[in-house]
Amino acid sequence: MIKKTLCFSNPAYLSLRDAQLVIKLPEVEKAEDLSADFKKSAEVTRPIEDIGVVVLDNKQITITQGALEAMLENNCAVITCDSNHMPVGLLLSLVGNTTQNERFREQLDASLPLRKQLWQQTMQQKIRNQAAVLNLCSNAETKCMQSWVNDVRSGELRKIAYPDLT
């Protein structure tokens, strides 16, 4: 079965009832001139097992712990966005997500030379990206930054940033 992606870009109340994600809109809940029957009919439910990804793209979203737990138990990814609508966080299940556990284990078991090499590659790419952004925004000269990329040595910047680590 194809899992659904739910994106919430307006204020919402998200809770759990009978293995269903309950979606309520605050403006409907708070409206005094609406009948209780109408408020009840405006409530939407979705089966938790049908949800694959939930995107939270509004600061006025309230979500219960029970709803989060149920989503994670069903391997649903929860993505949070900032005020610029850019993803800033990803919540994944650690228990049922064997792929993520394997990645964590591989990272923990990586040899020191591999960690130093990955650190070097990360720093080189960060400098390349900064040069590209600088070039795009101001059309500035970035040749010196390209030479910095070549000067990055394995583990070197880590020693500068974290001198106590070897």
Compact description:
With 166 residues, the chain is an alpha/beta fold.
Structural account:
The chain is α/β, with parallel strands linked by helices and 166 residues long. It folds into two domains: 4-97, Ribosomal Protein L15, Chain: K, domain 2, CATH 3.100.10.20; 109-161. 45% of the residues lie in helices and 23% in strands. The chain contains seven helices and eight strands, in the order E-E-E-H-H-E-E-E-H-E-E-H-H-H-H. Strands 1-5-7-8 form a four-stranded mixed β-sheet, covered by helices on one side. The protein has a four-stranded mixed β-sheet with strand order 4-3-2-6. A hairpin with a 5-residue loop joins strand 7 and strand 8 (87-91). Helix 5 (112-138) runs antiparallel to helix 6 (143-151). The longest helix is centred in the last third of the chain and has 27 residues, at 112-138. The N and C termini lie far apart (48 Å). Residues 158-163 have low confidence and may be disordered.
Succession of helices and strands: EEEHHEEEHEEHHHH
Give me the CATH fold name of the largest domain: Ribosomal Protein L15, Chain: K, domain 2
Which shape, going by the Cα principal axes?
A: elongated
Straight-line N-to-C gap: 48 Å
Q: Briefly, what CATH class of the largest domain?
A: Alpha Beta
**Would you identify the regions where 5 or more consecutive residues have pLDDT less than 50?**
158-163
> What is the helix tally?
7
Strand proportion, as a percent range, falls in 15-25%
- Main sheet: strands, sense, barrel: 4 strands, mixed
CATH architecture of the largest domain: Ribosomal Protein L15, Chain: K, domain 2
Looking across the biggest beta sheet, what order are the strands in? 1-5-7-8
